[in-house]
UniProtKB/TrEMBL annotation:
Alphabetical UniProt keywords: ATP-binding, Cell membrane, Membrane, Nucleotide-binding, Transmembrane, Transmembrane helix, Transport
Subcellular localization, as worded in the UniProt entry: Cell membrane
Protein name stated in the entry: Unannotated protein
Lineage of the organism: unclassified sequences, metagenomes, ecological metagenomes
Ranges of residues in domain ABC transmembrane type-1: 42-327
Length: 601
């Protein structure tokens, strides 16, 4: 499925072909969730069938007691009465026990299904390529894991049980009425005609509204997440009032949609009650006439009225189930859209082993454009010998970061070939590639946990001594010791206890301990202040020693440690030489370096 297809799941109106595709993938997902628990599901279904059959026996036993047991008791034969009462009590106790067991068993079953689905969403979204995460907002991913899963949970926990119990109860009730009194069943059956049209009207009108409700709910979550994520910018640019206005608009739309749904129930429920009451009144009238004529027993009439009345009891629950079903169905469509998404950077089918990478990188006529067709790299050829440090410089949009992402295989070339030690990176396993190539970006992300935990991310089995050695190598040891608990200090979310520069030093230590053959620094020193940058310069020399390094930087002080500088423009290399030779020349890099030097004065 393409990214356009994923984006299309938030559209309210779908074409016939799109709608069919969405239904097919939703059914496929549903079947894959049910298949592992099919045996347990069948057992629970058998139990609920038995419970509803016993439940429906009540009115028939009442009819039997009035028309047979009581007359016998009046003639001093109480055995039939005790038998009927005993049967009624047995049916009541057995029904309660079976329903209790079914509800507990079904609850565990639904939790197992939800666990499976929740894990699949998490695992799958992690496997998807960077392109997906750059286009599919974090708020929408969170919505899939929260509100959408909650909708499915509500259906499985309550709606599903109510639907199964309700349908079986109505089916057994109608069947019992057929054997008990066919004319009463005929009256009940006639009432199904207006009931069908009422239900159909409700389905047609509610389907679109529930889809609108899910889309509106997702937009609320997306807007909230994006606002909280960018709270610094919100406060810096005093955007609170504007955000409040936009959020109020979204909330009002969501309220309006839900109000329309409630209005539907305001029509459906009273109409349902009216149909049921009219049916019962007609059965009572016609049955009463036959009782007076002597062609129908009083007990049978009472049972027929109970059956007719109880027949409509589950209808409101079924309407509520349809509410949950529509919401859950819409949620399942969105979740299936994410799970159907294929990684734009697939795993190698037959990976070539790369045990000890040396770090030679070769771009052989590599071209690249994004899925929207925008070309970034027209045709790029470059050889980086193992152990060489090169710096990529140039204006924004020149293609520097794209080169780094191609080496890391966050994207694949659209033409040409990129090799590591002579092996096409597309033929390497993800494990070998990630072990051989490490990227340090401008935003050094720290996970919740200690400083030591974040450094050990580069080598999960690292000893405390190795962690400390890595920190010393990049110049991070002193400031770490100054933290409240040293290496055990919890950095909190996004590294709240350390500065931006300190986060970057920790990320350098993380890269050092990983010991990759190829290290990519993508604007990795841009967040460092001058003292921190000077401190890390020595660490960088240690970090880059004996490995291939790609440095992308606007600060030319970092570029000075490179063996070779490539000046890029519109996806092409326009200058390629040592920093010293380029500075002494009259090309673009020389002018850039002069401008940078002047800015320091």
């Amino acid at each position: 499925m393409s990214m356009q297809g994923v984006a299309g799941e938030d559209k309210i109106q779908l074409s016939k072909e799109e709608s069919q595709q969405v239904k097919l993938r939703s059914r496929k997902l549903l079947l894959s969730l049910i298949y592992p628990v099919r045996g347990r599901l069948l057992l629970s279904l058998l139990i609920v069938i038995l419970s509803q059959a016993l439940r429906v026996a009540g009115p028939a036993l009442i009819a039997l007691s009035i028309d047979w047991a009581l007359p016998a008791a009046l003639k001093a034969d109480t055995t039939p009465l005790f038998l009927v009462v005993g049967g009624y009590l047995f049916a009541a106790v057995a029904t309660a026990s079976l329903i209790s067991w079914f509800l507990r068993y079904a609850a565990k079953l639904s939790q197992d299904v939800l666990l499976n689905l929740r894990q699949r969403i998490f695992v799958h979204t992690q496997k998807l390529s960077l392109e997906f995460h750059e286009k599919y907002t974090s708020g929408r991913v969170i919505s899939r894991q929260t509100s959408d899963l909650d909708s499915i949970k509500e259906l499985l926990d309550t709606g599903g049980n109510e639907m199964i119990v309700g349908i079986l109860y109505m089916l057994f009730t109608a069947t019992a009425l057929v054997f008990l009194d066919l004319p009463s069943f005929a009256i009940l059956a006639i009432s199904w005609v207006p009931l069908y049209f009422l239900t159909r009207w409700f389905q047609v009108n509610s389907k679109l509204m529930f889809r609108e409700s899910r889309v509106s709910s997702a937009k609320l979550i997306v807007y909230f997440v994006e606002t909280m994520t960018g709270i610094r910018a919100v406060k810096a640019f005093r955007k609170e009032k504007r955000n409040q206005g936009e959020y109020e608009t979204l909330v009002e739309k969501y309220r309006h949609i839900n109000a329309k749904v409630i209005q539907l129930f305001g029509i459906f429920d009273p109409a349902l009650i009216m149909i049921g009451n009219i049916s019962v009144a007609i059965i009572l009238l016609w049955g009463g006439v036959r009782v007076l004529e002597g062609s129908l027993g009083l007990g049978v009439l009472i049972a027929a009225i109970l059956y007719a009345r109880r027949f409509y009891d589950p209808m409101e629950d079924l309407a509520m189930f349809y509410n949950s079903y529509q919401s859950a169905n819409s949620a399942l469509e969105k979740i299936s859209g994410v799970l159907e998404e294929q990684a734009s950077v697939p795993e190698a089918q037959k990976p070539v082993a790369l045990a000890n990478a040396k770090g030679e990188i070769v771009f052989d006529k590599v071209g690249f454009h994004y899925s929207n067709g925008v070309e970034v790299i027209p045709e790029f050829s470059l050889t980086v010998p193992a152990g060489q440090t090169i710096a990529l410089v140039g204006t924004t949009g020149a293609g520097k970061s794209t080169i780094a992402k191609l080496i890391s295989r966050f994207y694949d070339p659209t033409s040409g070939k990129l090799t590591l030690d002579g092996i096409d990176v597309r033929d390497l396993s993800a494990k070998d590639l990630r072990r051989s190539v490490v990227m340090v970006t401008q935003e050094a992300y720290l996970f919740s946990g200690s400083v030591a935990d974040n450094i050990a991310l580069g080598k999960p089995d690292a000893t405390p001594e190795e962690i400390e050695h890595a920190a010393k190598a990049v110049g991070a040891h002193e400031f770490i010791l100054a933290l409240p608990e040293g290496y055990s200090t919890d950095v909190n979310k996004r590294g709240g206890r350390v500065s931006a520069g300190q986060r970057q030093l920790i990320s350098f230590a993380r890269a050092f301990i990983a010991n990759p053959a190829v290290l990519i620094l993508d604007e990795a020193t841009s967040s460092l202040d001058i003292p921190s940058e000077r401190l890390v310069q020595h660490g960088l020399k240690t970090l880059l020693a004996d490995r291939t390094a790609i440095i992308i930087a606007h600060r030319l002080s970092t570029v000075s440690i490179a063996d070779r500088v490539l000046v890029m423009e519109k996806g092409r290399v326009i200058e390629d030489d040592s920093p010293k030779n380029l500075i002494s020349g009259s090309g673009k890099f020389s002018k850039m370096h002069k401008a940078w030097r002047d800015s320091l004065v």
